[in-house]
Write a sequence for this structure.
């Protein structure tokens, strides 16, 4: 128990700033999960779950008595959602792999789906903002709600194989970075800066893989209508 308590309370002192090591480790696991997702590896899901569990204890600072007594309910809540959706995504990707195929095949979402994602992101943020404010989340509360909603949609999009899920992460990072720095979560804020560049890279990689797989399919099974033209 002493070892567990030591690991739970271990912290890095930088001048007058204190950063919990579990915040750092949790973000490292998140980065590894994102890397695995970009490469379409099934292990990305369980690795991400470990990171989510660690970060859940970090963002409920006032509950767990951490050095930073700030509650980011959107950040904390999204870890719970991450775990639930990740279990489903893990099952979905393993099922596809066990069936002899790739864990997921990148594909573009339809225009209707894209519109629904935008509506869900804006609508979810508007609906959750007053709830998070009532529960005492850190201001600006709408940013916390935006992060929660966008994270849910991005994780769902990854499980479905939509290329656009990377762009949702970009939108989350743009809002999340200044929020985390202002709330004193510096390790997570710095990681979000890196995530921003990483998610753009992931988008390019998945878009390229989608194009390659489409060309491969068309080469193997050419469209007979095109052959007659």
């Amino acid at each position: 128990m002493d070892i567990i308590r030591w690991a739970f309370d271990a912290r890095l002192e930088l001048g007058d700033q204190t950063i919990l090591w579990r915040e750092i480790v949790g973000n490292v696991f998140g980065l590894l999960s994102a890397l695995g997702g970009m490469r379409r590896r099934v292990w990305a899901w369980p690795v991400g779950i470990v990171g989510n569990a660690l970060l859940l204890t970090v963002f409920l600072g006032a509950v767990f008595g951490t050095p930073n007594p700030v509650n980011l309910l959107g950040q904390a809540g999204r870890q719970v959602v991450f775990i639930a959706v990740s279990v489903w995504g893990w099952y979905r990707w393993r099922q596809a792999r066990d069936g002899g195929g790739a864990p997921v095949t990148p594909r573009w979402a339809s225009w209707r789906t894209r519109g629904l994602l935008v509506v869900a992101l804006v609508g979810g943020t508007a609906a959750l903002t007053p709830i998070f404010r009532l529960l005492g989340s850190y201001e600006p509360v709408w940013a916390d709600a935006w992060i929660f909603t966008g994270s849910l949609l991005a994780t769902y999009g990854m499980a479905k194989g939509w290329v656009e899920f990377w762009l949702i992460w970009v939108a989350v990072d743009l809002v999340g970075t200044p929020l985390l720095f202002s709330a004193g979560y510096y390790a997570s804020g710095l990681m979000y800066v890196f995530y921003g560049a990483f998610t753009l890279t992931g988008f390019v990689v998945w878009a390229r893989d989608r194009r390659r797989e489409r060309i491969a399919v068309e080469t193997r099974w050419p469209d007979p209508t095109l052959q007659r033209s």
About this structure: The chain has a mean pLDDT of 79. Strands lie at 11-14, 17-20. The longest strand covers residues 11-14.
